[in-house]
Amino acid sequence: MTVSLEDARRIIAAGERYAIHLGQPVNIAVVDYAGILVAHVRMDNARLQTADISVDRACAARASAAPARLVNHTGGEGGPAGSGVGDEGYGGWERPPPEPGSGLTGALPLRRDGMIVGAVGVSGAPAPLDEAIARAAAAAF
Fold first, then answer.
1. Quick check: 97 pLDDT over 50?
2. 70 versus 91: which is more confidently predicted?
3. Cα–Cα dist 111/121, whole Å
């Protein structure tokens, strides 16, 4: 089982609708069960630098089902906020303390019949909005 192109298009369309509602142009990526990109969209006026991040977030969510907020776009872990590790300006993200049940920031695994079959990643808006858009996109699955 995996995410089909038709699934990916539906997921992305739902994410786009919610991003438009929020007034936040973003990048949305969907990967399959193997972490391979199925579809990606960069909305008009979304920051160019965030395209790769959306794909990396989706891959991280699929690969480990670990919160994407703990993995920076180069694949390494970020350090605690202000530690100098993982928060070097735009290249890394702060690593907030884990919160049980808090979900993923900007990425969610996609499940079918209890199995992870892919993931969606969003980047380009502030973290809480990336997460909200990812949840709206995943809800279409």
1. no
2. 70
3. 14
